[in-house]
Design a protein that fits this description.
The complex is a heterodimer of chains A (about 120) and B (about 110). Chain A has strands at about 5, 10-15, 20-25, 30-35, 45-50, 55, 65-70, 75-80, 90-95, 105, 110-115. With about 120 residues, chain A is mainly beta. The termini of chain B are far apart. Classes of the chains: A mainly beta (about 120), B mainly beta (about 110).
Chain lengths: ~120, ~110
């Protein structure tokens, strides 16, 4: 069964460094998403991406964040200058359609630790 | 404003007994509702979904959920818990504006042998 994959599973970085989290969505999906979950808190939406552009973003997704689909298979989340509060589990998701049934398929997550 | 509320952060049941995980949502319109499960070190797996068809939704692994508009609820049930059901369960709502999902805080299910 097709799956969303994410690499790395765990990333440790120093404050102020740039990180790129990578995701390979399911191959025929058209909608792509990033969510994050700070330890002990709920999963929060960051951004959605369709047709090579951002379609929605939350207030969390500020200028430090960017997304890209560089080669038609990968979907990346870049954090330009990491802060301690960026430490979280980051989930990538993909969906075939923006219409019903609106299913999103999630990857296993990347745990980002900023020290 | 809370879009989705999971009433129990932890639920513990004995193997073979029923499971009830509660979820309430707030939405002006009929939303799309989902239950996802997360086993340790695994991704979020879709259990079932409600998207304005039948109000009783059957999912994988024997789970069901009933959409009750009058109660704004979408509780997850299973008649008989199995050890492999121990995991974190998330109730998720998609409102009628946009595609983003709103997650509940999760319910951790423990199954006692």
């Amino acid at each position: 069964e097709p799956e969303v994959t994410q690499t790395p599973s765990h990333q440790v970085t120093q404050m102020g460094q740039e990180v790129i989290l990578r995701c390979v969505p399911i191959s025929n999906h058209l909608y792509f998403y990033w969510y994050r979950q700070i330890l002990g808190q709920k999963v929060e939406f960051l951004v959605s991406f369709y047709n090579n552009e951002i379609s929605e973003k939350s207030e969390i997704f500020d200028d430090q964040f960017s997304v890209e689909r560089p080669d038609g298979s990968n979907f990346t989340l870049k954090i330009r200058s990491t802060k301690l509060e960026d430490s979280a589990m980051y989930f990538c998701a993909s969906g075939l359609s923006g219409r019903s049934p609106y299913e999103q398929y999630f990857g296993p997550g990347t745990r980002l630790t900023v020290t | 404003a809370q879009s989705v509320t999971q009433l129990d952060s932890h639920v513990s049941v004995s193997e073979g007994t029923p499971v009830l995980l509660r979820c309430n949502y707030s939405s002006s319109y009929s939303p799309s509702l989902f239950w996802y499960v997360q086993h340790p070190n695994k991704g979020l797996q879709l259990l079932l979904k409600y998207t304005s068809a039948a109000t009783l939704v059957k999912g994988i692994n024997g789970f069901e959920a009933e959409f009750k508009k009058s109660e704004t609820s979408f509780h997850l049930t299973k008649p008989s818990a199995h050890m492999s059901d121990a995991a974190e369960y998330f109730c998720v709502v998609r409102l009628n504006t946009g595609n983003q999902f709103y997650f509940g805080t999760g319910t951790s299910l423990t199954v006692i042998p």
